[in-house]
Amino acid sequence: MPFPDDERRDIPNERGSLPDAEQLLVDVLAKSAGHSGTGRPETLTGHSRKTRDAARVVAGRIGLPGVLASYPRFWAWAECSSLLHDTGKVAAGFQLQLRHKQHSWHERHEVLSLAYVDLLTAGLPEEDRAMIAAGVVFHHRCLNGKQGLAECYPHDDKNWEKTFCLNPDAPRGYRAQVPPGRHAALLAWLAAELSTSPSQPGTDRKLWQRAREQFAAVEARWSVPVAEEPGLVAVLLQGAVTLADRSASADVRLDTETPLPFRYLEKRVARPHPHQTAAAQTDGHMILIAATGSGKTEAGLAWASRQMEAMPGQPRVAWLLPYRASINAMRDRFAGDFGCGTEGIGVLHATAAAALLDLIVCDDQAPGKEDARKARAMAGAMRLFRQRVRVATPHQMLRAAVAGPKYSSVLLEQANSVFVLDELHAYDPLTFGRICAAMTLWEKMGSRVAVVSATLAPPMIELIRESLPGGVTVRRAPPGTAPVRHRLILDDQPLTAPDSLNRIREWLAEGHSVLAVANKVRTAQQVFHDLMPAADADPLLLHSRFKYRDRKAIEDEIMRRYPERGLGQPARRGGGLVVSTQALEVSLRLDFDRGVSEIAPVEAIAQRAGRVNRRGRHPDGPVEFRIHPSESARPYDEGAIEAAMAALQDWDGKLISEEATDEWLARAYNTRWGRAWAQAARDSRDGFAAAFLSFRDPFNDRSEFADRLDEQFDSVEVLLHDDVEEYLTLADGKDGDPLKAAGLLIPVTCRQAGILGARFDQHLRVRVADPRWDACYTVRAGLDLTSGTGQPPVADTIL
Questions:
Q1: What is the mean pLDDT of residues 314-340?
Q2: Which residues pair with 419 in a beta bridge?
Q3: Which are the contacts of 409, defined by CB distance < 8 A and separation ≥ 6?
Q4: pLDDT at 359 (0 to 100)
Q5: Nearest one of 196, 50, 218 to 148, comparing CA atoms
Q6: 371 contacts 35 by C-beta, under 8 angstroms
């Protein structure tokens, strides 16, 4: 098949150094320069070999854990599928569109690839052939549903021959889709790579006929429900092929070394606490309960290090946290602790990750202005997989359950992994239940789970144990591990009352640093504005409705100003005020002199108090921590607030310790509300497993599941209209990708997005707010949903 001379200039010069079959295929491309991760055109043989080699790297990571142990041929299927996945790109129609933008083929190369599966797996058992075919044909699209292959290629369609054999309407030189010489060369090259002998084509069955027959067999097997275990294995195979393909296409190699040191505890902790030593000696799932500031993170890392030493392959560590502030801080903490820099720690952010996966999953194949963007997206997406230590929210892990080509690789990466769930108490019962359902799936895939928390109520422990039938070891810090740090005061005035604000002003005037925690963004903004004139140092406000990059700057400044107090530091540290919502509750090593909070569930109260006199080193001894009533229970359940008030009542004016916290939890959850909470979480776990974690229809379109999951999490991200131009530059400019642009996004609830008039922009892949809201945002106070709009106050929620 001839190519014009001006096209040859862009084709790598490989002639003379290759075997005969491969020399004949030098002109056959898999990627244009724009689609290639190297910036150069890539041959079909070169890309196929790279993808097969990448599958071997993935196999070294994952091994055969859990359910895969019953499928010893799994990685042989993945390797073969990876080598054959793009063979249909040999078609003249595909080659033409790579070279001439005006000629679009409009066909799916992976369907034609099935002909080569038929030719090269003829001697294998039927199960092997069926799984290899599934790995090949589903690496871009699903079988049934939106843009499903079954709808595009009905088996009785009379156009199969014109589509995949001879197209008289194509330009001269491109009418025969796969000329005999080129087909013979490709078949010989593939057979040599697979160390097999292909079945002979014969005169009675042409390539298009083989493709049609194989596609009919694929459709017959996967169009009806299958048993859950084979369905899960099929999705994991799909994930292996898509992950290998992405790795090869982006020219990004997956990390084989882990930054988390083996024998972490003895290398990083000079004098470990007993609970840290116990965690380091635990094999298998673990629950660790230890007070804030007693080294839970180090204990979790010690446990994770132990698991990674004992598990096969190259396990990844996923440290899961509820709040964005915690994620950023934990990434920086790990990078410093491990000495690897932030590039060695992966971070999964919801919208950025989804945008990258959306961009790369639908390989439209035709070159054009999107080429560079897709190449950057591929490289960006691979950064989501490359590192062996990641920090994320559980939402990213749960989203993988929707599977499909976009997320099956995310699901595969959860096999043979180590999960540490930090402060699991922070979730409502519906989310808690979903996470428990995910734990069951992780165990099926050979992964190990640890839950580390200062505030884990008895029903939570029981639910976790139920969800991990392989057994869970419970570790507790011995009494007295954490010193007595606070005297609890139950105030009868709201946080916004004059007397409450005046007391904070007095503390500030005395040179104390003060943390004030409100339950709602609107209340936090009001308290901040009221107290600003009284703060000598520049006061700081932190809540969920900041642009991510502004919020990161505020978090960094808070961490810089209010680190844990060292031994012998003076009583007063220069004052300063931080007003916050729940964003500062979890995994931040902060230390204030005084603290106040609105009434919240007992877990939240204990966590907020843990940011005040964190290690009990204040020269004054135990310091005051005041609890104020709030105008309403929102964003919490009214029963949770009533249970907290009842649990705290007997401690007014008393010194509190971790033993007091345990008693608070027992009292709060031994109520009608607590029993209802446990039942709601259990129902959520079972319902989520049935609706989302069933793989009986593994190759049906599951985008509806993703939409439902997002709605149930009730959290989306919006872009202010003023930031559209900068977002475009960061996302699509030179060296740009959505990960960089994500710093401009603001998290809100689905209802708040409606109030903001946010509309989904197909090109940006994000929601853009109505322009009238631009003036309601400031770097200092974030997005004010009540200022200058004529809108009533918008209900807050936990983000």
A1: 85
A2: 318, 449
A3: 239, 240, 242, 243, 246, 385
A4: 52
A5: 218
A6: yes
Question: Stretch 369-396: mean pLDDT, rounded?
Answer: 69
**Adjacent-strand bridge partners of 719:** 768
Selected residue with higher pLDDT from 621 and 794: 621
Kindly state the tokens that stand for 14: 């490989």
Domains of the chain: 5-250 (1.10.3210.30), 264-476 (3.40.50.300), 486-656 (3.40.50.300), 679-783 (no CATH)
Secondary structure E strands in 663-722: 716-719
- Let me know: does 766 contact 727? Beta carbons within 8 Å: yes
- Residue with the two structure tokens 């602790």: 337
Q: For the chain, how big is the Rg over CA atoms in Å?
A: 29
CA 499 to chain centre: 44
Identify the residue whose tokens are 């882990």: 258
Range picked from 309-318, 402-411, 481-490 for highest mean pLDDT: 309-318
Higher pLDDT, residue 138 or 369: 138
Q: What is the pTM of this model?
A: 0.87
| pLDDT tens by residue, 615-673 | 778 888 899 999 999 988 888 999 999 999 999 999 999 998 878 888 999 999 999 99
Facing residues of 698 across strands? none
- Give the span between the Cα atoms of 508 and 277, in whole angstroms: 40
771 forms beta bridges with none
Q: Under the phi-then-psi rule, with left for phi > 0, alpha for psi from -120 to 50, and beta for the rest, what region is 25?
A: alpha
Give one word for 77, left, alpha or beta, with left for phi > 0 and alpha for psi -120 to 50: alpha
Identify any residues that bridge with 418 across adjacent strands, giving them in sequence order.
Answer: 317, 448
Answer whether 784's CB lies under 8 Å from 791's CB: no
Q: Is 789:773 a contact under the CB 8 Å cutoff?
A: yes
Half-sphere exposure of 251 (CA within 13 A, CB side): 13
The conformation of residue 297, written as its DSSP 8-state character, comes to H
- Using an 8 Å Cβ cutoff, are 419 and 348 in contact? no
Burial profile 26-44: b = 16 or more Cβ within 10 angstroms, e = fewer: bbbbbbbbbbbbeeebbbb
At 29 the pLDDT is 92
pLDDT of 84: 98
**Which pLDDT value is given to residue 571?**
61
